[in-house]
Amino acid sequence: MITTPTTRRLLTAAIVALLNLGSLRAADATGQWRGEVETPMGLLKLQLTFQADGAGLSGKVASDFGGDKREAPLQDVKLAGDTLTFSETIDMQGNTLRIDYTGHVGPKEITFTRHVGDFGTDEFVATRMAAPAAAAGIDGKWTVEFDTQVGKQTYRYDLRASGETLTGKAEWERMGEKGVTDLKDGKIAGNAVSFVEPMSAQGMDLLITYAGKLDGDTLKLTRTVGEFATEEGVATRLRAGASPSTPPAAAPATPSPAPDTAAHAATAPGLQTPPASK
């Protein structure tokens, strides 16, 4: 291949352009960042959150200034190469104050300059926070036994999580009866779980609300049975191919102080008192 001085210059320019293109690639600013700003009025703690929004970024700021906490969306978030810019507005004695940020993004730190309207300029460093732990795996089947005022009740739950939404069914056995109920309003955030089991009997609707904490293969549940009682139990995960074992002993029910508990309970399925033998 024969090259001329002009050809060599063009090749050199092309190589330099490719190298510069790599250096101009946007840094990764997504995630949560934490920093502290020494202001003339005291220490300001900031937590900045950025997330992908189409081809750009969006974000929010949570601040703590001497116990005065606020959260607000960020405006005009832009990332060019490793330069991050955005602004926020705050209300200051009835006046709107704009605060502009310019930062240089590194793998673990962002070095910021902060312009507070006409009042001055601050500099601080925000460090990347560890990614929040993924929601604990709750998908699967669980078994639990509740010790109620009218005897033991056995449940098997089939639960599925999608993001922070929890769906599932409850297969129950109580007072010699069996049934399956679709669970409602299920939520999971980290290891915190909640859902509702609707019941209906003799024209009366009853909601059993559950709150739980997931820990590996155990799910500690507290449930409130309408206005009648609060009960606790520990559900265990059923592994594929395993036959249900006897659930852990449940904590005894804590009756509600309502004086008409017995009368109302008599109308709820699974809470009924067996008829007296003749």
The residue fraction in helices comes out at: under 10%
Strand content: over 45%
**Spatial sequence of strands, sheet with the most strands:** 4-3-2-1-9-8-7-6-5
Number of domains: 2
Helix and strand element order: HEEEEEEEEEEEEEEEEEEEH
Q: Sketch the major β-sheet.
A: 9 strands, antiparallel
Give the name of the CATH architecture of the largest domain.
Beta Barrel
Number of strands: 19
Features:
Lipocalin, 2 domains, 61% strand, nine-stranded antiparallel β-sheet, 278 residues, eight-stranded antiparallel beta barrel, 19 strands, elongated
Protein architecture, described:
This protein has helices at residues 5-24, 261-265; strands spanning 31-39, 42-53, 56-65, 68-73, 75-80, 83-92, 95-105, 109-116, 120-128, 140-148, 151-162, 165-174, 177-182, 184-189, 192-201, 204-215, 218-225, 229-238, 251-255. It has 278 residues and is mainly beta. It folds into 2 domains: 25-128, Quinohemoprotein amine dehydrogenase alpha subunit, domain 2 (Lipocalin), CATH 2.40.128; 140-256, Lipocalin. A 9-stranded antiparallel sheet has the order 4-3-2-1-9-8-7-6-5, with no helix packed on it. Strands 10-11-12-14-15-16-17-18 form an 8-stranded antiparallel barrel. It is elongated and about 90 Å long.
List the helices and strands and how they pair.
Layout: H1 5-24, E1 31-39, E2 42-53, E3 56-65, E4 68-73, E5 75-80, E6 83-92, E7 95-105, E8 109-116, E9 120-128, E10 140-148, E11 151-162, E12 165-174, E13 177-182, E14 184-189, E15 192-201, E16 204-215, E17 218-225, E18 229-238, E19 251-255, H2 261-265
Antiparallel strand pairs: 1-2, 1-9, 2-3, 3-4, 5-6, 6-7, 7-8, 8-9, 10-11, 10-18, 11-12, 12-13, 12-14, 14-15, 15-16, 16-17, 17-18, 18-19
